[in-house]
Specification:
By secondary structure, the chain is an alpha+beta fold. The protein has 11 helices and 19 strands. The longest helix is centred in the middle third of the chain and has 22 residues.
Length: about 450
């Protein structure tokens, strides 16, 4: 009997110990303070010597996160780590996060003022890492200022508790007073400062472009997308469009006086850029794999597919479509003439190359196989599967769909090797694509 009681007690102790280990590794409570200031509280399941995050370019955290006394930010192995100066472990951390001073280049903005006292939060920059540099298992509590809304995907609540993205991926969450607009296709948060003509274009363009994209890709997004549209006055002669896309979400920030009244230049930028961001919602079905393939693969294709959509909607005629391709070729040559490879362009800050040269490759491949870039991406999504895609997978599919491994090799060299005369290499790529198209037409 005593042995039975001992075993029962041991089992109970083991179960209690296991129970203490059940649950997320951290709870992150993000509360909006007046304006776009956030109070962020980390409650860790176990005491740790530090909390690691993916590094943000420009030392954003060091400059704009207020840490409690005795804590500091260190850089280690490509990560930023918040730790105590005395090296002691801790389970709780309370900090204050402010918006960046100016837009962070080629980064999701961690904290962005949005509309009338609202804020758009990118959870990825608040999400800790494991020792293996993967994102930890966490839950979020997201609370707007009193009377506000917490909006993410299909959720619109006074606060979000025990929240995790339905996409298992970092996400945008809006905290603030604006009431979202929900349609059959999307849930949108629109800043009332946005000029009325832009809002009307947005309401027309989104359902029309989504319908075309669904037809081209053969499917609609599984999760109702979130769209965020905001505007700030800026300078009178300024025309700035900043967009960011995530799985089932994208946000648009307009800045400058040129947006104030309808005009052809602003309308053209809005249409092309918004459709580009919408394309990313469908591309998200094929995520980059662990090898971290170059961004030109999806950014350039988004430009090329956006051109196909605008032509299908009747917004562009053949001349406009061809002019857009010529612009991509010119811009690509100029960027690569700066002494970088395409694969090395991002590290050097030549971001335009990712779009222009990626567009060049997408257009050349489409021409070579006698199909559209959307057709290629439909196959690419199927090929990528749950493990995501790699750069080599892209070249393999180019070889398969064009029937020419040499052409795929030329595309690979165009991306990876320094080009002495970029313009001539671009012309050569299109000449080879044209020859394959003619051969296929025989």
């Amino acid at each position: 009997m005593m042995r039975f009681l001992f075993l029962l007690s041991l089992c109970a102790a083991l179960l209690a110990a296991c129970a203490r280990e059940v649950g997320p590794e951290a709870r992150i409570a993000i509360t909006q303070r007046p304006g776009a200031v956030l109070e962020v509280v980390y409650e860790l399941r176990r005491a740790q010597p530090g909390i690691a995050f993916h590094e943000i370019e420009g030392d954003y955290r060091a400059a704009r996160w207020d840490l409690p006394p005795g804590f500091e930010i260190r850089k280690k192995d490509g990560a930023e780590v918040i730790a105590r100066r005395d090296g002691a472990r801790f389970k709780t951390l309370v900090l204050t996060a402010h918006p960046a001073q100016g837009r962070l280049p080629k980064e999701y903005q961690p904290v962005a003022p949005y509309g009338e006292g609202g804020v758009l939060v990118y959870t990825g920059h608040f999400w800790p890492l494991t020792k293996a540099q993967a994102r930890a298992d966490v839950v979020f509590d997201l609370t707007p200022a009193p009377g506000g809304h917490a909006v993410a995907f299909g959720d619109n609540a006074m606060a979000l508790h025990d929240w995790q993205s339905p996409m298992a991926h970092p996400a945008f969450v809006y905290l603030g007073p604006l009431e979202p607009i929900e349609t059959g296709a999307v849930m949108a948060v629109i800043d009332p400062q946005t000029p009325g003509w832009i809002v009307e274009e947005f309401k027309r363009l989104v359902p029309e472009s989504f319908e075309k994209l669904s037809a081209m890709f053969g499917a609609a997004p599984e999760t109702k997308p979130n769209l965020f549209l905001a505007a700030v006055p800026g300078k009178p002669a300024q025309l700035s469009y900043a967009g960011d896309a995530l799985p089932a979400q994208f946000q648009i920030m307009l800045e400058g006086g040129v947006w104030a009244k309808p005009n052809d230049q602003a309308r053209g930028v809005f249409l092309q850029s918004t459709v580009h961001e919408a394309v990313h919602l469908w591309q998200a079905a094929a995520r980059p794999g662990a090898s971290k393939p170059p961004e030109w693969i999806h950014e350039g294709a988004a430009d090329a597919i956006a051109a196909e959509i605008l032509a299908a909607l009747g917004e562009w005629d053949a001349a406009a479509f061809e002019a857009d391709e010529r612009t991509a070729r010119t811009d690509c040559a100029r960027e690569l003439d700066k002494g970088t490879t395409l694969n090395g362009a991002r590290a050097k800050g030549y971001y335009r190359a990712l779009y222009a040269c990626g567009h060049v490759i997408a257009s050349a491949v489409a021409r070579a196989e006698g199909a559209s870039t959307a057709d290629f991406w439909r196959a690419f999504i199927d090929r990528a599967g749950p493990e995501g895609y790699s750069e080599d997978m892209f070249y393999d599919l180019v070889a398969e769909r064009t029937g020419d491994p040499d052409f795929a090799g030329a595309v690979r060299d165009f991306a990876r090797k320094p080009l002495a005369r970029p313009e001539r290499e671009i012309d050569g790529l299109f000449a080879a694509a044209g020859a394959l198209a003619r051969e296929r037409g025989r």
